[in-house]
Design a protein that fits this description.
alpha+beta; single chain; SH3 type barrels; 2 domains; rod-shaped
Length: 186
């Protein structure tokens, strides 16, 4: 089939164009993906947000394409079996093969985008952490903690670190820093 590759290419280009439209709208201030840039983490989050919503759309569209081309392949196969002439049989056989290949491409695209989308939805649960400010806590006995303040009580802080949630008494904190700036010192 001569249009098989062009169809797949058009599907990919439409998806990339769709993603680029939303990337420009959502992350116009974070285009620079240089790793030394403090906005790099922000850019990565924006790309994941775009993929989180566009991949399910691609999966649905590709699933619809799979259903459509599979149905056309079945219809052409029925016509192939009922063909009256050799030319009709060859024509329907070619159409059946072409539509079957397009159905396979759409099916793989639908499954792949659904799997990737599901993984992004499952493993991108740390989005809420992006809204918190990270602090460096130096305790009286020398231990350093880097994390986010989740809850502040009368005499304790609940701090979320990469190791888990730690409860620290206010009296155990020697110094609190944010981006090198000392906010509190005992």
């Amino acid at each position: 089939m001569k249009h098989k590759k062009s169809f797949f290419l058009k599907l990919v280009l439409i998806t990339l164009f769709y993603n680029s439209l939303f990337a420009q709208v959502d992350s116009s201030s974070t285009i620079n993906l240089y790793t030394g840039n403090p906005n790099f983490k922000e850019s990565k989050v924006e790309v994941l947000k775009i993929l989180k919503w566009s991949l399910p759309v691609l999966s649905i569209i590709s699933g619809g394409g799979y259903y459509y081309f599979n149905k056309k392949a079945d219809d052409n196969y029925s016509n192939y079996l009922n063909a009256n002439t050799r030319e009709q049989a060859v024509d329907y056989r070619t159409k059946t093969k072409d539509n079957d290949e397009l159905a396979s491409i759409c099916g793989v695209t639908a499954i792949g985008s659904a799997v990737i989308s599901t993984l992004i939805w499952l493993f991108n649960s740390n989005e809420t952490d992006e809204n918190f400010e990270e602090y460096k806590f130096i305790l009286v006995y020398g231990r350093e903690l880097n994390g986010y303040i989740i809850r502040e009580d009368f005499d304790t802080y609940q701090i979320k670190t990469k190791d888990g949630i730690i409860v620290v008494k206010r009296s155990d904190i020697y110094r609190i820093e944010k981006n090198g700036l000392v906010l509190y010192k005992k």
